[in-house]
Specification:
The protein is globular and about 45 Å long. The chain is an alpha+beta fold. The termini are far apart. Strands 1, 2, 3, 4, 5, 6, 7 and 8 form an 8-stranded antiparallel β-sheet that branches. Helix 2 (43-56) crosses helix 3. The chain has helices spanning 5-21, 43-56, 139-155; strands spanning 35-39, 61-65, 70-73, 76-77, 82-83, 94-104, 108-118, 131-133. It has one domain (26-155): TATA-Binding Protein (2-Layer Sandwich).
């Protein structure tokens, strides 16, 4: 059976639109106090290295797309060193890291990272509104710094 050119183009357009509408990179922006670094590598390579460094810290990924320049970890308890857990009594111990990597001039990457915890477990609050950046010096902030330092060690500034 032979398809017409217009039917084939229509199917291609639908498939293209479906792929373009997806993706895992969130529509929201990083928090204003997120850390910003410049790395001498392409965004997919920076995200791949972030994934490797996070895994070396015993953390696990939840959402990753080097092609989109995004990576998010599972929730991670900095006291017990376990991924995918919660701690209702000590919510500031459970953090999540996010990485946004965007190309900039000279083949470099603008890497934006945030380390966050849930300020409230209230399900009536929108998920992003439940989150807050960890303070400077917090175990999650130190963990994020180790990951970024490793990325810089690999690729340079």
């Amino acid at each position: 059976m032979r398809r017409s050119l217009s039917a084939t183009l229509a199917v291609a357009a639908v498939l293209t639109a479906a792929c373009a509408a997806g993706g895992i990179r969130p529509s929201y922006e990083p928090f204003p106090d997120a850390r910003v670094d410049t790395i001498n590598a392409a965004p997919p390579d920076v995200i791949q290295e972030a994934i490797a460094r996070v895994n070396a810290e015993n953390m696990r990924g939840a959402w990753e797309s080097p092609e989109e320049g995004f990576f998010e970890t599972q929730w991670f308890n900095v006291a017990t060193q376990q991924s995918g857990v919660s701690d209702r009594n000590n919510p500031d111990r459970v953090i999540l890291l996010r990485f946004w990597a965007d190309p900039i001039e000279g083949g470099r990457t603008k890497l934006v990272t945030e380390a966050i915890y849930q300020r409230t477990p209230d399900p009536s609050v929108q998920p992003r509104d439940r989150e807050m950046s960890v303070p400077n010096g917090h175990a999650g902030d130190r963990l994020r710094a180790r990951v970024i330092d490793g990325i810089k060690e690999r690729f340079g500034r």
